[in-house]
Amino acid sequence: MEKTDISVVIIDDHPLVREGLRKILELEPGIKVIDEAGDGQGAINIARKFKPDVILMDINMPGTNGVEATRIIKREFPNMGIIALTIHEDEEYVLELVRAGVSGYVLKDIAPAKLVETIRTVAAGNSVIDPTITRTLFSELNRLTRRRHAQEEWESLTEREMDILKLITQGKSNKEIAVDLCISEKTVKNHITNVFRKLKVDDRTQAVLFAIKNRLIEI
Description:
Layout: E1 6-11, H1 15-26, E2 31-37, H2 40-50, E3 54-57, H3 66-76, E4 81-86, H4 91-100, E5 104-107, H5 112-123, E6 128-129, H6 131-155, H7 159-169, H8 174-181, H9 185-199, H10 204-213
Helix pairs in contact: 2-3, 3-4, 7-9, 8-9
């Protein structure tokens, strides 16, 4: 292998897939397949032994899966390029692999020329995410962002607003809440309006369900 060659390792639990990938890559100048394995532990062992430039990593494998193997390898070799090569577009897989540190995420129906381009791009220190998966990733990140913002809102509830929320879950009316807290009904209404706004709910029932679901109160 010449110094300019990109060293590649193929990790997949299907021998036919590994053979197909090897044949494709062996036709490409400047790319050298140096080893292969059928499970995540094999990937870890090869990474430690050869320190390849790029690893093509399957996700669903027996024993140590691709996500866990990626996490371990990136922890030990932060600059090693790992490309997740998978049939999955599932949000959970995408996010787990992004968190684990993959440099690329492509589907197994990728065109050979595009795979080669991805390997070269990742070897150069850049990232590649399949456009289909990018849409999925942004959709999931937006969902998580909305959930995080909602959490920030309920965490901003004041002590008095929490008291009122607890009394709402007990089924008490505005008048009863006012008596319990020694405040006016108008003040109760103002607090309830703020609670609804922060929890992004429209009525008392939704507020109660939200509070129970997110364990804001004990029942």
